[in-house]
Amino acid sequence: MLVGGRGHQVGAFDTWSGHEVKSLASTARLNASVTHDLVKGRVAVLKPLDDSLPAEGEGRVGRRGLHSVVQSTADGARIEGPAVEDLTLR
């Protein structure tokens, strides 16, 4: 209801305690943190990979041409593969 009176939804939060309302801010911060991590991971896939090896036991995600690729180094050898599985039906 825009003008005058009380809308039917006004009482929706009447049963909420102060504790529950205070937790909304921490929940919003947590969700923002998760969103940041997800976006950061998606942006990393856009970065072209160079020819250097990742450090031993480390890995990275990037792209070669139009394809997203993961690289890691194990026992001095480079391991590389698609970052996203091909889910097309064969």
Task: Explain how this protein is built.
- With 90 residues, the chain is α+β, with helices and mostly antiparallel strands.
- It is 32% helix and 22% strand.
- The chain has one domain.
- The chain has a three-stranded antiparallel β-sheet.
- It is elongated, with a radius of gyration of 24 Å.
- The chain starts with 17 loop residues before the first helix and ends in an 8-residue tail after the last strand.
Topology:
Elements: H1 18-46, E1 59-64, E2 67-74, E3 77-82
Antiparallel strand pairs: 1-2, 2-3
Quick take:
The chain has 90 residues and is an alpha+beta fold. It has one helix spanning 18-46, and strands at 59-64, 67-74, 77-82.
* Domains, number: 1
Counting helices, strands and paired strands, the structural category is alpha+beta
Largest beta sheet, briefly?
A: 3 strands, antiparallel
- Total strands: 3
Task: Tell the overall outline.
Answer: elongated
| Average predicted confidence as pLDDT | 79
| Order of strands in the sheet with most strands | 1-2-3
Strand content: 15-25%
The span between the termini is 55 Å
Number of helices: 1
Helix content: 25-40%
Compute the CA-based radius of gyration: 24 Å
Uncertain stretches of 5 or more adjacent residues: none
One letter per element, helices H and strands E, the order comes to HEEE
